[in-house]
Amino acid sequence: MKRLFPLLLYAGLANASVLEGTAQINSNYIYRGMSVTNRSVLEPAYSGIPAGQLSLSLSHQWFSANFLTGNINTWDAVEPVLEPDGEVDASIGFTLPIPVRFSVNSYNYLINTINNSIELAASVGSDVVWLNASINNLPGWGMYTTYLQLCVNPPITESVSFAGHVGYNTLSSTDWGYGNYLDYRFGIVYSEMDWRVEVNYTNTVFRYNYVDDRYIDTDNALSFVVAHTFEFLKEHSR
User: What is the CATH number of the domain that holds 148?
Assistant: First the structure.
C-alpha cells in the first residue's frame, strides 16, 4: 500500500475520479523493514510461490478507498515462527486541499488472526518527497506500534527513478522478542506505461533482541517487484 500514496493524494488534488487495479509479485515481501516471507535473500516466499498481491483502489475528489489481498507469512501465536497465511486489507482515506492525507487501514489475516490490526495513518508531501506517520493497534497481542517514515522518489530519467526511505518503528511491548528499530531502503524503479519494476535493498538496524540480550542488524534483503496496473475509470470533474 505504500506506493499508493502519491497516486491517491494527487488524484484527490486534481479533483479526478480514478478506479484502478494492480497485480504485484514480490520476490521477498518486506513490511516496515522486516521480511515476512520467511526466506533469505533472493528466495521466494513459501512453497516456491512468490508473495503476490491484488489491489483495487478508488479515488474521487477528496475521498479514496483501497482493497488488497495476497499471500504472506505471519507470526504464529504460539511458536515464534513465520507461517504461510493470507492477507485481506481495506483502507479509506481523505485528502485535504493541501497535500495531506489521512487514512484508516484494516489489516486482516486468514490463519493467524492474532495479528489483525487497525491503523491510523497520515501522509504529507509531494510525489518526490513525503512523510508517513502511523499508529497501529494489535488487540490480539495487547500492544501497539508506531511508525515514522521519510520517503524519497526523485526521477533520474523519464522512466527511471530512485526510491528510498528511512523509518523508525516503536513497540509498546517486547512480546515479539525485540524492541524499537530503524530501517532503511534504497532502490531503482522503472515505470513504463502500466508496468512497474523495482529492485530494492532493505536493512533493519539498531534492533534490540531481548532473547540474545544484544543489538542486531538483521532482515537485510535484496528484493524484486513486478507490478501491472489496470485502469478501469479515469474521469476529471468539470
Answer: 2.40.160.40
